[in-house]
Amino acid sequence: MSFLAPLYALGLLAVAAPIIFHLIRRRPKGEVPFSSVMFLTPSPPPPASRRRFDQLLLLLLRAAALILLGLAFMRPFFRQDAAADAGEPGGRVVVLIDTSASMRRGDVWKRAVASADAALAECRPTDRVAVYAFDRTVRPVLGFAEADRLEPHQRVAVARDRLTQLTPTWGGTELGRALVDSAGAILEAGAGGALARGKVVLVSDLQQGARLIELAGFEWPAEVTLDLRAVSGDGGNAGLALLTDRPDPEPGGTAAPFRVRVTNSAGANQEQFRLVWDGVNGPAVEAYVPPGESRVVKVPRPPAGGPAPTLRLTGDAHAFDNALYFAGARRQELTVLFLGADAASDPAGLLYFLERAWGETPERVVRVVARKPGDPLTWDDVRAAPLVVLAGSPSTESTQVLDRYLREGGVVLVVLTPASPALPALAGASDSAVEEARADRYAMLRDITFDHPLFAPLSGPQFSDFTKVHFWKHRRLTDQHLPGARVLARFDDGAPAVLEKPHGKGRVVVLASGWQPADSQLARSSKFVPLMTALLELRGGRAATGVTYRVGDRVPVSAASGATTVHKPDGTAVALSADANAFADTDQPGVYVLDTPTGPQSFAVNLDPTESLTATVPVETLEQLGCRLVNREAESRRTEAERQQQNTELERNQAVWRVLLLVAIVVLLVETGLAGWRTRSGRREVATP
């Protein structure tokens, strides 16, 4: 029960009046005849402590009448019926809570849950409520469709219960995508129904590293508002970020130190930090980083041969982003088979540049073995090779071996040159000669498929320009030469330049021009080494450097590598399917280990460096991107006015005060009748001799 005028409760103090009167004034029970009292001294009534309540029923009736009158003036009503009787449709509310890694600081997550719980408590039973959690992705905790299947009084209770089951993850913060999806969910929930206002309640630390790019091209709906419930951490924060994962060797052949950026947030109390390797005895690297700035620090590599090292930052109050993980230094020794007539010392041939495409690194060494196209091949020659380069016509026996190699997951690169213009009979290819294309000056590449693993390393805007790579000669391929092949790049005359044809578990890649100087400038361009490296990794996957992956990234896993299980940093094991080409369950930082037939291979996953940028984003930034922010004071006044209006209407409809007044009148009539009867009864007792 609620009251429209609760201040009238002060009138209930009047109930004390009958009690006091009953204590200080009591009528004698009888009369004793006496001749004269003029010579007697009057005596006051006995103290109240010696009094006892008399006429208790009358006292209760009089007190009850006063209480009923006070309650009637307070105008009571039952709020439980307010939502049902109000007649106004509820709004659509999405509580969007940030579960990214930056929410692990101090008590930020605890305060975020409390803030989200308070937002849910403010919802009315008629509101349609949904709860979403986000980091790199947006996940429904309680969607509108599921909430609509619940009773109105159950929605908020279920949402609050599921809210307590959430925990922060290690993912980055895609705030823009989360806001767009939340606004879209509100619009979708209102489609086909009555137009009602919607509100997104954002509970987040609003850290500066949050990505907002998706808001730039989104038109914020006019009927949706954004209610910010920012929760920020106490003090500053410092974090680590690796600048490069494959540094060039220093003079003398020694590996260069790691270059690490240490970032310190503005307003931090600490500015002196240390960088140390876990489990490695050695001096720490000092890092002085003033608040609001960053510094690049060179950290010597730990000794080789030990376990996978971890670099830690000490001196920071929040440790969630103070570690960098590196995979163990297991060096790969790979053999590439070249089938062609070129001499290794001939700078005009393919082999000369192929041997120089892969430099020796601490993680990998590549050896090129050259054979004549007509030389017989055995299964042992090609079984472990990650790549076979074919620049000639192999024998029938060798073709059968290569066919088996492809079916087992191998990769064959067929290079068409003037000396070998015919496709080998692999993967259903026609063994007829390919005609030479006519070019006035030169050809260039266009329509490049940058989402393919072969060109993905060159997909960045600083690498994707192929206009300076000229092809003087090339061969013209058609669909009849390699049926079912996918074109990965074309020449500017429309002819296919790079094709791929799956065959079993492997693939055939055809290059319609060579990289030797007589055919093109490819070997002498900056694109050659990344392309050759990508070809090398099509079968065996990327070398286990383990320093470029971030939480949430998809790690390429080639089916040909034979990997069966991935061991996560927390000790859990995830089985890989036979046709898996990537591992996507990188949900925590640390070192992951792949079980392969050739031994364990590891890769490292690190936290997104932007999670260390914990300074709060200005509210004006969201307004400039089009978000319609809620005026909390105006919203509070409007909500209070609506609540008061509903209460008044409800109280008017229920009219509980009339019932209370009627009962008070009845009680007063009973009290009057009882008091009169007691008075007449007392007089008869006195009149009796």
Q: What would your notes on this structure say?
A:
- Keywords: Membrane, Transmembrane, Transmembrane helix.
- With 689 residues, the protein is an alpha/beta fold.
- Helix content is 26%, strand content 21%.
- The chain has five domains: 2-28 and 51-80 and 655-682, no CATH class; 92-232 and 616-635, von Willebrand factor, type A domain (Rossmann fold); 238-327, Immunoglobulin-like; 332-536, 3-Layer(aba) Sandwich (Rossmann fold), CATH 3.40.50.880; 548-606, no CATH class.
- It contains 15 helices and 29 strands.
- The strands form seven sheets. An eight-stranded mixed sheet has the order 16-15-17-18-22-21-20-19. Strands 5-4-3-6-7 form a five-stranded mixed sheet, with helices on both faces. Strands 23-29-28-25-26 form a five-stranded mixed sheet, with no helix packed on it.
- α4 packs antiparallel against α6.
- The radius of gyration is 42 Å and the shape is elongated.
